[in-house]
Amino acid sequence: VQLQASGGGLVQAGGSLRLSCAASGRTSSIRYLAWFRQAPGNERDFVAAMQWSARSTFYANAVKGRFTISRDKNTVYLQMNVLTPDDTAVYSCAAGPSVIQSNRESQHAYAYWGQGTQVTVSS
Prior knowledge:
The chain is an all-beta fold and 123 residues long. It contains no helices and 11 strands. Strands 2, 4, 5, 6, 9, 10 and 11 form a 7-stranded mixed sheet that branches. A hairpin with a 2-residue loop joins strand 7 and strand 8. The radius of gyration is 13 Å and the shape is globular.
């Protein structure tokens, strides 16, 4: 499975961005696709995940109500609204065949990673 992320950029606080993650290859093996983010000096944090077939969605508390993960065919989107400077980070998408409910928020559960895309929110 290959993942190609895009859509980052610079936006003012309160603004919106939409990230895309295009999956290719053996997408039938994907159980979950997730977004993670890493700010400078911080660990990589879970942001949102989608169960690939059922399309159930899950969010970190920090983004719940502001971010929406969705899927159209083999592309997963992360719509980010009401952005704050705390959302500034490198965002990466990840997928895996072995992800289950109990580990879906752990980066270590994901076998495939796209390149990161920078999101910068100015105050």
